[in-house]
């Protein structure tokens, strides 16, 4: 695997004149060749958070040429900061610096940073360039690719946002060395998701490699990132604005968003909520006669092996779930749309779950 | 002209799968056939302001079918309310009503309403449908067409926004009957602009018809609106996101934005500032040797005939103008880009005005 580790791989998200590369490999931060081609003009603002700044901000800015006008902005960390107020801080900083519409924003951090910076870029002077430099596994395999940007509203997750594609995604696998185990597991939830929705072979590979992944084996992580990004890039290229197949990427997310919203953003990590949510979707798929008990047991085993919760919060009742799920963006008018599994590796969009079946699943699902 | 008045004309903004019609004529409000085809789902929110609501809100909602879930939101009026806080009120109302991403927003009002509602639609759940129902001449001939949406920031006009196209533009010419003379003149500034930048014949027609237009002659206003929308639709179809020719629509706007920002939003109407700004651009074009003194006199005469200011605010010095103009969105890096006139009816983008020439023009321009 040595060659893989020293020659960054390049994938492409094929979106016509908005196509962009995903570079995956070690040592990308601090190496000027990766960022320079994707800057729109001479004005560059790097936005990161208080956790990532001391680790990687200097390394990234070292990779920016001397003739650029570089500003940095460090925001607080955590899902609770993913608000319009944080995005306003970015806009204020851009305007205070006199940045024009040919500037470039660089998002250095996890999914919260990428979503907020992408949204700030989408709406600053009606849209400026941005580059994703994700430093968490979750952001590397999911949120940094595909152009979904936005912030939370007290009434719902990601309710305010835009589709706005980055100019490039730079995934420096070295950054995973500092990732806390809980964040690693949260990222693995989205990796497992790709196997469950679309790639049974990848799922089987993950079952075998999960100990290596959790042990931060770089070769295994690199392969997991590449495969995840490839699957995501394919889906996004097919359906950029989620009119159809892209919705499959939301496996576990409607249940998961309900958990996050009910618990207060940041109590459960997004990936943790998705982990439990995918199991709820798997169990519901079994109740509908699509998955076998054995399939569900496999799903549960890999979620457990990834270090993710297998149960919902103790205090969440059926009504708590349903009330929040009904406002979810993925619902068409009043029908509850869920992503379910016809088989392991084969997801579908389903809006005909009988209400009593859904309520029974939520009622019976383990609590912790 | 009777037929024109009773058979609404239809123009199209040709943008591929985002193409949309502009309907122009009397009696469109309250007639269900114009709105119904452009609604995305059953949830509809009409957003208007305190001035327009008592005049036209009932008439518009009468034109919506009984089986729709219709909400209304009335915001304060005026450019000073074109803020992110107002857009947040729209988002809060949408979420409080449980509106999903298949809802439709209807903007009923002038340019401020249209810009804010369009931006709210662009970012609600990453983008929902909206329809423009402009009730001022300025909004009918300019801001409702072309998908520029956004709000002001204390540091600059329209600094936060998005390109987001409406599903349709419904221009009910009956609404002009209640338009105050000052607002009518402000709208005529943008009408004159089309003649100056692209259509010398239209300019000559406007010179002849200005008394009729200011006298609210419906046939003349309808023709002015149709021609203006046609010219705007052509330019937008050619260059949706202002990479090139669309910038010509900003004739007078860089000077005008400086006046608006310096005076405080809402003190000068946008069209008034554009009127004075177009004269500044014309006089600068003359200093650069492109326009004759006679051309400038014609430009001044038509701006005067439209009832617009011929002078800048007394208290604005050269430095006041330059400081604000340098932050304008239309500037590439540090070069000041201006829209100037090579001839009446032929605008160009110019970024090589010698700073001393610009300063001398601003210094010499009349103050009031």
Automatic annotation (TrEMBL), chains A, B:
Similarity section:
Belongs to the sugar phosphate cyclases superfamily. Dehydroquinate synthase family.
Which positions bind Zn(2+)?
190, 253, 270
* Keywords linked to the UniProt accession: Amino-acid biosynthesis, Aromatic amino acid biosynthesis, Cobalt, Cytoplasm, Lyase, Metal-binding, NAD, Nucleotide-binding, Zinc
Asked whether the UniProt record includes Amino-acid biosynthesis among its keywords, one would answer yes
Kindly provide the name given to this protein in its UniProt entry.
3-dehydroquinate synthase
NCBIfam families under this entry? Answer: aroB (TIGR01357)
> What pathway is it annotated to?
Metabolic intermediate biosynthesis; chorismate biosynthesis; chorismate from D-erythrose 4-phosphate and phosphoenolpyruvate: step 2/7
EC number in record: 4.2.3.4
Domain of life of the source? Bacteria
**UniProt enzyme class:** lyase
**What GO molecular-function term can you cite, just one?**
3-dehydroquinate synthase activity
Catalyzed reaction equations: 7-phospho-2-dehydro-3-deoxy-D-arabino-heptonate = 3-dehydroquinate + phosphate
Stretches assigned to the 3-dehydroquinate synthase C-terminal domain? 187-331
Its annotated compartments are: Cytoplasm
Classification via HAMAP family: DHQ_synthase
């Amino acid at each position: 695997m040595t060659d893989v580790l020293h020659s960054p791989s390049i994938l492409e998200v094929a979106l016509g004149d908005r196509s962009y590369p995903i570079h995956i490999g070690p040592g990308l931060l601090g190496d000027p060749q990766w960022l320079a081609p994707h800057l729109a003009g001479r004005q560059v603002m790097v936005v990161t958070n208080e956790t990532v700044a001391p680790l990687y901000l200097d390394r990234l800015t070292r990779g920016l040429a001397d003739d650029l006008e570089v500003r940095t902005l460090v925001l607080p960390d955590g899902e609770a900061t993913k608000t319009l107020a944080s995005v306003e801080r970015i806009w204020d900083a851009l305007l205070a610096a006199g940045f024009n519409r040919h500037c470039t924003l660089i998002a250095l951090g996890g999914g919260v940073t990428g979503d907020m910076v992408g949204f700030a870029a989408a709406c600053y002077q009606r849209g400026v360039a941005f580059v994703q430099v994700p430093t968490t596994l979750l952001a590397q395999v999911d949120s940094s690719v595909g152009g979904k940007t936005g912030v939370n509203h007290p009434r719902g997750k990601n309710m305010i946002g835009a589709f706005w594609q980055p100019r490039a995604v730079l995934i420096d696998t070295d950054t995973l060395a500092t990732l806390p185990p809980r964040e690693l597991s949260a990222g693995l939830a989205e990796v497992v998701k790709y196997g469950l929705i679309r790639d049974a072979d990848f799922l089987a590979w993950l079952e075998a490699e999960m100990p290596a992944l959790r042990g931060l084996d770089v070769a295994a992580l690199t392969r997991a990132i590449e495969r995840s990004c490839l699957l995501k890039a394919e889906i996004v290229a097919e359906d950029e604005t989620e009119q159809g197949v892209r919705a499959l990427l939301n496996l576990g997310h409607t249940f998961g968003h309900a958990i996050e919203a009910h618990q207060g953003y940041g109590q459960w990590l997004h990936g943790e909520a998705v982990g439990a949510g995918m199991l709820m979707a798997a169990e519901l798929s079994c109740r509908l006669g699509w998955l076998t008990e054995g399939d569900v047991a496999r799903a549960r085993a890999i979620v457990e092996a990834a270090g993710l919760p297998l149960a919902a919060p103790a205090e969440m009742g059926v009504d708590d779930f349903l009330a929040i799920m009904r406002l979810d963006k993925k619902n068409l008018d009043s029908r509850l749309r869920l992503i379910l599994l016809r088989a392991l590796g084969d997801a579908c969009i389903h809006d005909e779950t009988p209400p009593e079946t859904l309520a029974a699943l939520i009622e019976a699902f383990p609590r912790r």
